[in-house]
Design goal:
It is a single chain. The chain is mainly α and 187 residues long. It is built from six helices and no strands. The chain has a single domain (9-168), classed as Serine Threonine Protein Phosphatase 5, Tetratricopeptide repeat, CATH 1.25.40. Helices cover 75% and strands 0% of the residues. It is globular and about 55 Å long.
Length: 187
């Protein structure tokens, strides 16, 4: 009899959602940059480490998408925290904008791959792709308004990720669909 393995995706999604929410509150202008300490702590511990662990745990399950997504975004959060904590003043602002844009390009192809998952996860990747691109554009344009819009997109993305995480945990525990995730059409 094969041993049942826990699904690591809800952990990774929750780590992503929580950290994204906190940073997006700063980007949306709800809090000043003085609130970055909590974001950086989460970026290292929950957004970073928990997602790396989720990515590693997806590997033996044979889930390439989960492995790449969680490990990559875990590394994103760690690199973001390192950049903010140790290198922020030494990096030209446009390189940070390029950093966000390249993450947006990566997220775009992960969004295309997510068409083979469910609508909840597809929505997370769509929201994240838009968030990265709008934040990058806000930086390139020097527009705090565009950055704030990116912050609000990040808040929406975080809510979608929390929902996807909750749906996976709650549906598994109840043994039925309590929170629908909407299957994608695979025709």
């Amino acid at each position: 009899m094969e041993e049942k393995r826990a699904n690591p995706a809800p952990l990774g999604l929750a780590g992503f959602a929580f950290t994204t929410w906190m940073l997006s509150m700063v980007n949306a202008g709800w809090y000043s940059a003085d609130a970055m300490g909590i974001v950086l702590a989460l970026a290292f511990a929950y957004g970073g480490l928990a997602q790396l662990v989720a990515g590693i745990l997806e590997y033996p399950r044979g889930n390439t998408f989960g492995t790449v997504a969680f490990f990559s975004y875990g590394a994103f959060w760690i690199s973001f925290a390192l950049l903010q904590q140790f290198f922020g003043t030494k990096v030209p602002p446009t390189t940070v904008d390029w950093y966000l844009l390249i993450w947006g390009i990566f997220t775009l192809y992960m969004w295309f791959a997510s068409f083979r998952t469910d609508r909840a996860l597809w929505s997370v990747f769509l929201g994240l792709w838009l968030t990265f691109v709008v934040l990058a554009m806000g930086g390139f344009l020097g527009s705090s308004m565009v950055t704030r819009i990116g912050g609000y997109l990040g808040l929406i993305t975080a809510v979608l990720a929390f929902y996807s995480s909750a749906a996976q945990v709650i549906n598994e525990l109840f043994g039925r669909v309590v929170l629908p995730v909407g299957p994608m059409s695979h025709s």
